[in-house]
Design a protein that fits this description.
Layout (H helix, E strand, L loop, with lengths): L3 H31 L9 H4 L3 H31 L2 H27 L3 H15 L3 H17 L1
Length: about 150
């Protein structure tokens, strides 16, 4: 029988997957509209926005889903393992990746231009915007707990 903590984790995980899906759909729609097409566009409100407004929305979507996905991952680890050390490790990992993105973006902006480092930033952000860290860390922490028993 599942206890309440496990149910919370399952719900967080399902919300995490849904968040990743929604973020990807919104990103595809916004990128398509920025490129001048509407191949993927299903959201009428986005069609009315200018390119500059779409770029701002793209950043807002990325920031919003970075926060949501990070919080859902942290909550999942907190409720499943009930080990503050694991929760802190996951939080530190997300903060390190965020600092890395800010550093690379700032350095690129001041030196060679932001557009030159954007593809790298997109890849690094892609790590945060996926459930892969959740899967990898969950398995690692789960094995560690099983070894300790």
């Amino acid at each position: 029988m599942l206890n309440r903590n496990k149910i919370v984790v399952i719900l967080c995980f399902l919300l995490l997957l849904l968040s990743v899906y929604i973020k990807e759909i919104l990103s595809l729609e916004i990128n398509s509209l920025i490129a001048g097409g509407n191949k993927f566009s299903k959201v009428g409100v986005l069609k009315e926005l200018s390119t500059n407004e779409l770029v701002k929305w793209k950043w807002l979507v990325s920031i919003f889903f970075t926060i949501v996905i990070s919080i859902l991952t942290l909550l999942s680890f907190h409720f499943w393992f009930k080990n503050i050390t694991y929760t802190k490790m996951v939080a530190k990992l997300y903060l390190i990746v965020l600092c890395l993105v800010i550093f690379i973006g700032g350095a690129g902006f001041l030196t060679i231009g932001f557009s030159e480092v954007y593809p790298l930033l997109r890849r690094v952000f892609g790590i945060i915007h996926s459930p892969i860290p959740f899967f990898i860390l969950f398995v690692l922490f789960y094995w560690k707990e099983k070894e300790e028993l």
